[in-house]
Amino acid sequence: MINLSVQVGGLRLKNPVMPASGTFAEELAHLLDFNQLGALVTKTITTEKRSGNPMPRVCELNDGMMNAIGIPSKGAQLFIDKVVPFYRDYDAPLIVSISAPTAQGFADLAARLSDVPGVAGIEANISCPNLEAHGQSFGMQAESTRDVVELMRQVTSLPLWVKLTPNAGEVVPVALAAQEAGADAVVVGNTLLGLSVDIERGRARLGNFMGGISGAAIRPLMVRLTYQCAQALEIPVIGCGGIATADDALEFIYAGASAVQVGTATFLHPKTMNTMVSELEAYCRRKGVASISTLIGALDDLPAEPFGALP
Ligand SMILES: Cc1cc2nc3c(=O)[nH]c(=O)nc-3n(C[C@H](O)[C@H](O)[C@H](O)COP(=O)(O)O)c2cc1C
């Protein structure tokens, strides 16, 4: 019997596979088995209702996609009344992704969710590049990350995961700030800001002009950031970005991820995460690995310098 369980930021998960925020919702319940997942992560919610960005909000790329959805939200109250009860039927812990325009707004929402039965943890989306001009967000700087995480930490004892952005050129100092401010885990990470041009019309392909790149195109970047964060941090790192198969997930795990999130791949094949869990088990069996947690950070041939030589 292979042990796929992992310890992630205050929670014991039965396996390391969970959805990435914004790519998973109640409607998928008839397409994949939620009970086979390590955790369930909701779309980012905000306190107030938000309408989101102008259309088109997504476009395809050769090796992934771009989105500028803009966090449309029906507001926290409707979420608490209608969505949280739906998830109480499932075993996997429910992680609620939150966002707010101010640090105090993040804290208020975290505090409010902490009293809701069925909410097992909070993922702070301090990284969404579409909320503010030019991709600026709390997660771009260590200081603003520290401020917002500290405020949330003061008001919630729930496991607090902080989702980082690869758009911060130096992600490790931001991750360290999140850890010092009391985060229980970091997610590495959100989409990478891009611009795709429709050359027939001479216009940006997204209504919001710029958007976040996701899918296979960003995977090596996210594996590298996962590795660097895992080297620097004591808290667990959750890897995310272009994961579509167990092999992809294992790259992140070897690089130091304690768990992984799957986003874009679910749009192509809704059962991707279920298949991944079986394939992770098969990999462990083939390799004689009794517990997948022994593979976390097991990457061999570490560079002499912690960040490696420049290419
Ligand atoms: C359509 C779409 C919507 C997303 N919405 C959110 C969101 O609400 N909150 C968030 O933190 N990340 C959001 N993301 C980012 C994903 O959670 C994930 O970090 C990113 O897509 C990289 O993973 P992937 O390559 O597996 O998709 C969204 C991504 C996509 C493609």
UniProtKB/TrEMBL annotation:
Keywords: Cytoplasm, Flavoprotein, FMN, Oxidoreductase, Pyrimidine biosynthesis. Signal peptide: none annotated. Residues 4-282 form the Dihydroorotate dehydrogenase catalytic domain. Pathway: Pyrimidine metabolism; UMP biosynthesis via de novo pathway. GO terms for molecular function: dihydroorotate dehydrogenase activity. It is an enzyme of class 1 (oxidoreductase). This is Dihydroorotate dehydrogenase. It comes from Pseudomonas putida (Arthrobacter siderocapsulatus). The lineage of its organism: Bacteria, Pseudomonadati, Pseudomonadota, Gammaproteobacteria, Pseudomonadales.
